[in-house]
Amino acid sequence: MKKLLFILATVLVVSCQQKKLDRMQEVQDSLQQVATTKDSAITDFLGTMNQIQANLDSIKKLEEIVDIESQSNSEPQSTTRQKVLRDIAMINELLKINRELIASQQKKMDFSSHKMKEMQQMLNMMSTQMETKDAEIVALQEELQRLQLNITDLNQDLMAAQERTAEQARLLEEKTTTIDQQTSAMNTAYYVFGTAKELVENGIVEKEGGFLGIGRSLRFRKDFNPDLFTKVDIRTVDEINLNSKKAKVVTTHPADSYELIGDELVEKLVITNPDRFWETNRYLVIVVN
């Protein structure tokens, strides 16, 4: 009987111990699950924080690019402005993603049993940074708008300056043309040569003086036809080829300002002093035979 009671007591003790062991295992499993859930939440939280920080780093780089482009272009071109707008749009998109990540993480923490103050503080800090970035984006957009207004004013000033420059160029061209024409006129002379008969018949010279047709001389007519003369630039032309037996200058020119060159034939007329030669008359008439 005693042996039976001992066995029953032993069974009861073992049974109680087993229940305690089972209970302890359940507690251990529960704690393990809690730890696993906690680790998963922390891992998810840290992953989200890393992504948010990476986005903030990208935003900082984009802001530096926008700032450089804004400062280095006092008169930004259309392509530069479009690039700045694209950069700002990208910053806004990254800010939107970060806001969604923070909201999602806060929601998880609200419904989680693992409300950790440090994580909440980190989220609050990230939210504060996001608000700061939002304010910076607004400032950038206002600055871009100001630059655009400045560009409009500068373009108007540039157009006005271009119009003034074009008008000045036109006036300068007119003055240059006038000066060129005056210079050309000042240095232009005309000559013609031919036999006495040819010159008379063409109305360039006329006979005068003499008695009964004897001793008459040729005189340059005032109503001559200028189309029969050859135009020359007195700065470059200093001789006229004649190749005739005789030659005589009809118009008035200083005798010491030219020479008739040739022995048996008069080969040419050489102007030795152009200023004196053309001083009294810009038309030269030579009779040859």
Q: Fill in the CATH topology of the largest domain.
A: Topoisomerase I, Chain A, domain 4
What is the CATH class name of the largest domain? Answer: Mainly Alpha
Distance between the termini: 182 Å
From the coordinates shown, what is the CATH architecture of the largest domain?
Orthogonal Bundle
Strand content: 15-25%
Rg calculated over all Cα atoms? 55 Å
Characterization of the model:
- Residues 123-175 form a coiled coil.
- Keywords: Coiled coil.
- This is Chromosome partition protein Smc.
- It comes from Sunxiuqinia dokdonensis.
- There is one protein chain.
- The chain is an alpha+beta fold and 289 residues long.
- It folds into two domains: 15-157, Topoisomerase I, Chain A, domain 4, CATH 1.10.132; 184-288, no CATH class.
- The chain is 64% helix and 15% strand.
- It contains five helices and nine strands; from the N terminus they run H-H-H-E-H-E-E-E-E-E-E-E-H-E.
- The chain has helices spanning 2-72, 78-110, 117-186, 196-201, 274-277, and strands at residues 188-194, 205-208, 217-220, 230-233, 239-244, 247-249, 258-261, 266-271, 283-288.
- A four-stranded mixed sheet has the order 4-1-9-6. A three-stranded antiparallel sheet has the order 5-8-7, with no helix packed on it. The protein has a two-stranded antiparallel sheet with strand order 2-3.
- 12% of the residues are buried.
- The model has no long low-confidence stretch (mean pLDDT 77).
Keywords:
rod-shaped, 289 residues, four-stranded mixed sheet, 2 domains, alpha+beta, 64% helix, Topoisomerase I, Chain A, domain 4, three-stranded antiparallel sheet
